[in-house]
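If you are new to this repository, start here. Below is one unmodified record pulled from the training split, so you can see the exact layout before writing a loader.
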Amino acid sequence: MWKLWNGSSKQCSFLPNCGNKLNNIVTDKQLSKSRKVINKKAIITICSIILIMIIIGIGFAIGKNSNNSIIGSWADSDGNIRFSFYEDGTCDGGQGPYYEAAENGTITFYDSYHYPYSKVTYYEVKGNKLYLSNYMDFETDDEDTSVFYRK
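And here is the target side for that same chain:
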């Protein structure tokens, strides 16, 4: 024989569906408290996941627009703007009105008809300095390396 749970703090001797013996007294308060703990944990977990996703998104945005990007205006040591590179692939001051900066550190300039110039320029951005060279190695004392400063 089993007793039905009526919401009070009385103990049921057996569970109604399976007939297993119930050893602990479970009150409405205890049940409500355990649900709150589970809900709190779920909310904290979901909020943590959302926060991590936001942080990752901000990291990608910062990385994309970091100071190591060639995008922007660059001046010589006298403060005169020599190059301006724009996100749409256009530029002012280079060997042509269009450019393509590759991840391997090369810039290819194009003319108005998108015909590439034969000369490849190597570049490296370090903070607020842009190094341009005809050769892959960037020796600051080398006459083939030019240094420009972010404006």
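Two things worth knowing about this chain: The first helix runs from residue 28 to 64. Strands lie at 72-75, 81-85, 91-92, 98-101, 106-110, 121-126, 129-133, 145-150.
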